[in-house]
Amino acid sequence: MRDDIKINDRAAALADQLVERLEKIVDPDVELDIYNLGLIYEINLDEMGHCQVVMTFTDTACDCAESLPIEVVDSLKQIEGIETVSVKVTWSPAWKITRISRFGRIFLGISPR
């Protein structure tokens, strides 16, 4: 799991599965997955199996602001131990290009540093 994503212990136990699912959800405007793009800020899983994801978008006018949260919910609910999922969209802190992972930078042709 990325160091810049706040994650509680219950969610951390499922980190590999969470990353695998999030890497399959692609922001159509940038053509990079939401995990490597750095759109995920926080993941918490409670004892009842409810997973809350805090995420943002690259821009307030992002065309995918409605569709991506639905994809996150549908995808994460497929993980055993996650019963329900909610997505909270935040604009603070604002997304910055520095949130793109090294892999994402290479994929997009941006200097990996």
TrEMBL record:
Residues 16-89 form the MIP18 family-like domain. It comes from the Bacteria. SUPFAM superfamilies: Fe-S cluster assembly (FSCA) domain-like (SSF117916). InterPro entries: Fe-S_Maturation_MIP18, FSCA_dom_sf, MIP18-like. This is Aromatic ring hydroxylating enzyme, evidenced by COGnitor PaaD-like protein involved in Fe-S cluster assembly. It comes from Streptococcus massiliensis.
